[in-house]
Amino acid sequence: MNSAIWWIRRDLRLGDNLSLSTALQRAGQVFPVFILDPRLLASRYCGEKRLSFLYAGLCALDASLREHGSYLLLRSGNPEQVLAELLHQTGAGAVYAQEDYSPYAVARDSKIGQRLPVTFLPGLTVHHPKQILKANRTPYTVYTPFNKAWQAHAWPGEPLPAPGVIPTPPGFASEEIPAGVRCPANDLFPAGETEAQRRLDEFTSGLDAPVFEYGENRNRLDLESTSTLSPYLRFGMLSARQGVAAVRQAASRAWDQHSRRGTETWLNELVWREFYLSILYHFPAVRLSSFRPGMSQIRWLNEEENFAAWKEGRTGFPIVDAAMGQLVQTGWMHNRARMIVASFLTKDLLIDWRWGERYFMQHLIDGDPAANNGGWQWVAGTGTDAAPYFRVFNPVLQSRKFDPTGAYIRRFLPELADVPNEFIHEPWKMAIDFQQEANCIIGKDYPAPIVDHTLARERVLIAYKLKG
To answer: Which of 68, 224, 335, 385 has fewest C-beta within 10 Å?
Structure first.
């Protein structure tokens, strides 16, 4: 029987995996291979929490493969060299892999594809970026028309089932999967395809599924109202098509405008993911520079002391500090909080969005080059379909609106636990006797604000107008 290598990258799953199913169809036997690339591991964008989630995902994938008569082969080294050696050692005749769109992946795969028998197949997105184009065959750079074209495009069909049996010849040793660091992310986000499917079912199945309330509650920081599926989509423990198929099914059960809006809103979020992947695919320069050339000359202040305060949750604005606490402690952050802290860094502190983008990638377990870059440039006003430069989030108003009782703040800032609701969003306004009663002396137990938001807003508007 012929054999092939299934080169696993961002598709740690057996279900709806075109690379795996094609390899089985054409070769009959497969060697599931994951390669730890030292260049990626040494990147300044790499983060321990995300690596730990990946390693746990590899363990879960190996266990699943063994249930299907196979096993995972882990290797470390230059992917081209590792694949060439494996082709020789195993006698496999071909390699099958899911296409990736990051600049590094595109360059790597192009080089490997010229030298080795590798076939790259779709699967990272529902619709390939080359499929969603304007009438003149150029890519969309604004979300709304992209979304319209994406939803009008032909549905590619229901997700593929997982293979029943995955024949893999025995006798080939695997490197040991690294253990990774222990952190809250390990417990908050158990890795693997099984957990991904469980969360997807919990979020979209049943008449009272949370997806039906998503349009109403998705921005509330104090509620468990999001799908928490982003880490699983990031590593392909869940495919984009599986997510879209599930929300399409939920939409068919929606009973009124409110519930239908919930499904539509979550589908739009999945399309945002595909939009940013399309932008990265067609405009790889966005990884290092502003999408909008006219915004590339903003005179950032880039004050290291303020950046350190932002990273460490010492800005004096509870909603910002709580969100940064959530990031560092758990490896994840609510999307509304991501917008708030990004606006604070770029607009209130006038610090280059690339500093924040990199810091996020160093901590987020769902850190994705496309979505993270797109989100940061949107908030900073430098990217495609960006928020206008004069949109500056007021952290106090955002806090009052999306964490009305301060439950989110108190969860990640225990030093504010006893602060009354009326002051939880602006604790610096407490009189000294209230501070003493709340066991929270401003400047001692919790910092005073490092900037005046009103003055900071005026400053950033001037800086953006004077760019270049």
So the answer is: 224
